[in-house]
Amino acid sequence: MKFLLARGASVLVSASALVLGGCGADGPVVWPISGATDGDFPLSSTFGPRVRTDDDVYDFHRGIDIAVPEGTDIYSIAAGVVSEIQEDTSAGGMLVKVDHGSYYSTYVHCSEVDVDVGDRVDAGEFIAESGKASNGFAHLHFEIRKPGDNKKDCVHPLDVLPYTDKGAPTLEIGKVDMTTPLQPKVTVTARVGAGELDLRSVSVATYEADAAAILEGLVPLSERTYDIETWNRTYTSSESDVVIDDPNNEGILVRPQKYNNTMPAQEIDFTFTGLVGTVTSGMLRVRAVAVDVKGNKISVESQ
Ligand SMILES: [Zn+2]
């Protein structure tokens, strides 16, 4: 507990953060950075498919990035036991992992770690200082792993962190490519607004029905879903990131718009193939659904 005495400000911050924070199954939950509390999170990158800001490369991001200067205090988000500390030679900096009972939180690119493995920590307790990634970008990379502590167990951190939900994503059916009517390609664009970044899944279903038919209750010809957490669990292998980092994996082409901490909205185009169409284009109807972390749902239909 020596660091608490040396860090009076941290104790004050954690006390106010406890008031602002949510309450999970294992007790109160706060943000890992002071000020980045409910409704105020300067994320430079969110969970899921992304185009990296530094090099334009597509990859799958298993956490959220909070852009903060090196040396910023990092707090445990909830009560738990420090289960792992290691130098992360490829990503840069130190990794700290805390076991919260039913899930783990990890704090990556730390410049200094002020706890030891086995230490008990409380929600809002100072554990480390932020650093920078090996590419030079100063930020905290933060993950929630549930129920295990492997990369494939990473889930959307907004599942656990408190935040102000602003409602359902928006969704648009773009192109329905009927070059081969029995095998249409459908592009949809899902968006969440500034400060939201909580998209969970996008799915597309095809139906054989005329323009006047009500699709609700009809059996689709085919349906495909890109669920971000399921995708991570299915395609993360402990040996290689090659499969999950392919933007055209399993015939679902994922094209995220690049985003950063001055434009924290999220927009992703998905082009689904592997769908079943109809012999004539006039009888093909398409329905797309997007769901966010809070379960808000939007569905749109083509005519
Ligand atoms: Zn990151």
TrEMBL record:
Q: Does the keyword Signal apply?
A: yes
Q: Name one Pfam family in it.
A: Peptidase_M23
For whether the record's keyword set contains Signal, the answer is yes
Q: Which UniProt keywords apply?
A: Signal
Recorded GO terms, molecular function?
Answer: metalloendopeptidase activity
Q: Which SUPFAM superfamilies match?
A: Duplicated hybrid motif
Q: What is the residue range of the signal peptide feature?
A: 1-25
- What parts of the sequence cross the membrane? none
**InterPro entries, A to Z:** Cell_wall_metabolism_enzyme, Dup_hybrid_motif, M23ase_b-sheet_dom
Residues covered by the M23ase beta-sheet core domain = 60-149
* PANTHER family per UniProt: MUREIN HYDROLASE ACTIVATOR ENVC, PEPTIDASE-RELATED
What name goes with this protein?
M23 family metallopeptidase
Q: Which organism is it from?
A: Polyangium jinanense
